[in-house]
Amino acid sequence: MILRQRDPDDDTEWSDVADWYNKQTGQDVTRCTVRKGYFLLAPFLEAGMVNPYKNEGTSESDDLRAQRLELEKERIRLRDERNENSRIIRELARKDATIDIVKNVISETVEPHDGFAQPPRVPSDTDMIVHLTDIHAGIQIDNFANQYDSRIMNQRLQAYLSRIAEIQKRHKSESCYLLLGGDLISGIIHSNLRLENNLNVIEQVKAVSLSICEFIKTLSSMFSDVNVYSVPGNHSRCLPNKEDNLKGENLDVLVFFYAQAALQQYENVYFFENDVEESVAIFRVRSNLVYGVHGDKDTISSVVQRLTMFFGEKPDIVLAGHRHTNGLTTVFDTKVVESGCLVGADNYCMDKRLRNKPEQMVLVVSEDGLECLYDVKLN
């Protein structure tokens, strides 16, 4: 039965309720039937045990429509999320495939340079670390403090080799450990670099790869063996926005692979990939643990502590670049050596009122650690 609770202010009579009920159901009940039925149900209504009367205008269809709307919105959200995930996966797959293709092309198509007889191994008490960082190949600079292009880049590399030869003769160092410290190319990470570059990114990679191959070939004639390591820089990332780059997506890696493929016939030249962490070169020189980083992810004051906690072993020497200035800092008993740059002061430095000379660092290392440090100017 349909019963209605009477409001004290409602002037509807029980007979009116009975008439309405008879019209709805086709039955014939009296006012007394309705009135007595209400008083029987009233305690349950007051206790909230019986649902109140609902108007047909606010039926359950409204709730169903609301539920259907929420389900449709959720379906669209899931579809959009699935499409976005698919897009990201496609992009990642393309990037990985591109890097793999380039590496394979380098390995298969680069014509190996003819090797020559390696110099005889002469026992010595020292080895040498040659730090080559921040070449920025491809940029063209012409200001009152500096001139730089591909020709001057090669001139400075030759000047660096001459100083290395002098140092090697002085100390008679046996082995050479070459660290390519990143930012080998100018790249496209800033819009103003596109204006300063006179080579596109592909030409930059080709130019610096050829120059570094010649650099390593000359080193191989000075030392019993040459061990080559490389760390990526920030200028050589593939995309301008660093948030869009995957970890390890860096064109400096291609320079390393090119040199490795081109110099495979040089029996005293060895290339070592970063198997533990791709942004850090880890090697030992005369039992001294050396960490090599580019420097964009670390500060000089904290790099020893962070790398020690990260790898679980404290280094004897840390090599860093990025800041374009030679420097030596002692953190506890670890020597943090900063190498400058080959490029010198560009327009960015001029805007910041910064002026630095092209310079690099050469380390002479014995069993006892860093024996001698050379601040090599390359004007």
From TrEMBL:
Entry coiled-coil feature ranges: 54-91
Keyword Cell membrane: no
Keywords: Coiled coil
GO MF annotation list: hydrolase activity
Name assigned to this protein: Calcineurin-like phosphoesterase domain-containing protein
Protein species of origin: bioreactor metagenome
Taxonomy of the source species: unclassified sequences, metagenomes, ecological metagenomes
Positions of the Calcineurin-like phosphoesterase domain: 129-336
